[in-house]
Amino acid sequence: MSNAELNELKQKYVAAGAASPATAFADRAENAEIWDADGNRFIDFAGGIGVLNVGHRHPKVVAAVKAQLDKLMHTCQTVMPYEGYVKVAERLSHLVPVRGHAKVMLANSGAEALENAVKIARAATGRSNVICFDGGYHGRTFYTMAMNGKVAPYQSDFGPMPGTVFRAPYPVPYHGVSEDEAIRGLKMTLKTDANPKDTAAIVLEPVLGEGGFYPASKSFLEKIREICDEHGMLMIIDEVQSGFGRTGKMFAIEHSGVEPDIMTMAKSMADGMPISAVVGTDKVMDASGPNSLGGTYTGSPTACAAALAVMEVFEEDNILEKSRALGEKLAARFGEWQTKFDCIDNVRNMGAMAAFELISNKTDRTPNPELAAALCKKAREEGLILLSCGMYGNTIRFLMPVTIEDSVLNEGLDIIESCLESLI
């Protein structure tokens, strides 16, 4: 079917809240390129929102999924378990830097992982409160919507959110929130809203994802660890977007050396197959009773096969090294743009998790979300899929596959530069 025919069906049958505004429909893809239903080619700087760190249809992952389909598609692992689930758990327990011996549960999505992380923290502590941060994003289920540090579009139309979720400032010095102010804000939250004796966990992203790609400093993460230890709260690190090699290490928290009690991950874990994980210290993970965790499709055989293949690809293809190299290339180009364009500022990257701000002027750092939207729209018209994000909607983020070829990368960056020249 053509793009036009598919758009007609979309308008008629897909719920407005779930329908993409895009009018081109993906038909096939390879590494960092997508072709739509009409045969038009796009360079993919979005990676399915950070899902495709090893690229569209990595051959090793495709082969693993095909082989699994010839053996077993489903039993529900709580009814009759299978090798893939326990092998993924084994691999993750050795990869994830939580305190002590790690145990694992698998789920289907980042939101499911966060929901279960909170359940586990409550069971382990006997407490109910959770503290999250401004700008944080944790999912679209009801509890994770309440955890999100941004109202629109995630909470706007859905009535009251669940209680016992409290907020603290996230340090973004560029926008006037220093690390000291963020820590003071957190301590005030613990005094005025969330009694530490009733608080199960502090949940945060080591690099804000939807909130704007702002990394937390080593010292800030160390202070969160200290506060959690002081009050007997658990530290939950959300690596759904920053994990699996995006930042040049397997997980962003590794840059700090801080060991959390629980970590969540999803997205690039299985190169597009739906899977997520909660990994935590064994005593914490074992706190809830039999059959208290799980779901019909959690850790499906095909998704586990893909995840195991992805972890092999990381080793065989030096993905972490490629992530660091990609980050250096992006940083160099961003530096050129910051000098050339007055509208670009605060260029930053942690490995290949890279972004810059679009602003009205560099004196007062006024965010320019209109220019960000125009740039993404213009880039799409020129064959480049590009995403914005951030509390102010003015951050341009880069989530292309880490495996992108240099020629394709440079072609995409050239499109951005050309679009900026035409827009300002």
TrEMBL record:
InterPro entries, per the entry: 4NH2But_aminotransferase_bac (IPR004632), Aminotrans_3 (IPR005814), Aminotrans_3_PPA_site (IPR049704), Class-III_PLP-dep_AT (IPR050103), PyrdxlP-dep_Trfase (IPR015424), PyrdxlP-dep_Trfase_major (IPR015421), PyrdxlP-dep_Trfase_small (IPR015422)
A GO molecular-function descriptor: identical protein binding
Cofactors, names only: pyridoxal 5'-phosphate
A GO biological-process term: gamma-aminobutyric acid metabolic process
Keywords: Aminotransferase, Pyridoxal phosphate, Transferase
A Pfam family assignment: Aminotran_3
Classification via NCBIfam families: GABAtrnsam
Family, similarity comment: Belongs to the class-III pyridoxal-phosphate-dependent aminotransferase family.
Name under which the protein is recorded: 4-aminobutyrate transaminase
